[in-house]
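re: ur question from earlier - yeah i can do the single chain one, its not a big deal. heres the input i used so u can compare w yours
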Amino acid sequence: MKSVIYLGIIIVFWLIIGEGCLKFRTSDSKALKEFDTSGVRLSIKTLKVKDRTLHYVMTGMDTFPTIVFVHGSPGSWDAFKEYIKDKDLLKKFRMISIDRPGFGYSDFGKAVTLQEESNIISPLFKGLKNNKPIYLVGHSLGGPMIVQLAADNPNTIAGLVILSGAIDVKLEKPEKWRHVIMQFPLKYLIPGSLRPSNKELWYLKTDLIKLAPRFKEITCPVYIIHGDKDPLVDYGNLAFGAKAFVNSTKIDTLTIPGANHFIPWMHYDVIKKVLLRL
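and the output i got, formated as C-alpha cells:
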C-alpha cells in the first residue's frame, strides 16, 4: 500500500513540477526587462486568426528587410532571442520570432499539423509587407514549417534558411510509441510542452508526405545548414534538400563538421554570417 502511495506522490510531483518547468517559454514581462537591459526595443504582439492566437515578438526598423524565425519542437520564440537582439543583424533587418501554434503563448498545448500551422501563421506576412524582402529561418521542425509557409505564400518569401531541418520523409523513423502515449491516460503523464511536441511529431511523417510534392513550388534561394553529427535529425536531410528544391534560384548547403542538432546556439557565429549574407 505504501508503495502505491509513494508512486502517487511521485506522479503528482512530476506533473506539477514538470508542467511548470517544461513549458519552454519566457513571460512577456521578463522578456521586456531582459531586452531593455540589452538596449534593444522589443515589441510583443498577437494576431487573431479565426479562433487561434499567434503570439510573436519583433525588433528592428520597420523599413528594413524582415527575418522571421521559426523554432523547433518543443520551443518558443525565445529560442532565437540572441539573434533578434544582435546589434549587427539589427543594422540590416527587422526581426520577428514567433511562438508556433501550440507553443509559448500561441494557444499553448493545442498542437496542429504543418498545414494548419501555416493557415495560422500566413496572415502575419500581409502585415509585414514594406516592399522589402521577407526571409524565413527554421530550426528542426521549423525547417519543414518554413517550406510549407513558402509554398503557401508564393511570391512572398525571398529566401529560406533551414537549420538542422527534418524535411525528408524517408529519414523520419516510424516512432509508433508516440501514438501510444497520446492516448488517455498516458498523455496526462507527459508534462509541459512535451505533450504538444509529441503530438505534432506524430503528425510529422504524414505532413512530410503531403509536403514532398510542393518542394518544386519553391523558387526563392534556399540555404541549408546541418551538423554531420546530429543525433536527432539525420544529416542526410542536407543532401535531400540539395536535390529537392528543383526550381530554387539558388541552393547553398553548409555542413558544420562535428556539430550536433543544436547549431543555432552552439554555432551562433556560423549562422549569423549566413544571415548577414541574405
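The domain at 2-276 is CATH 3.40.50.1820 (Rossmann fold). not sure if urs matches, ping me
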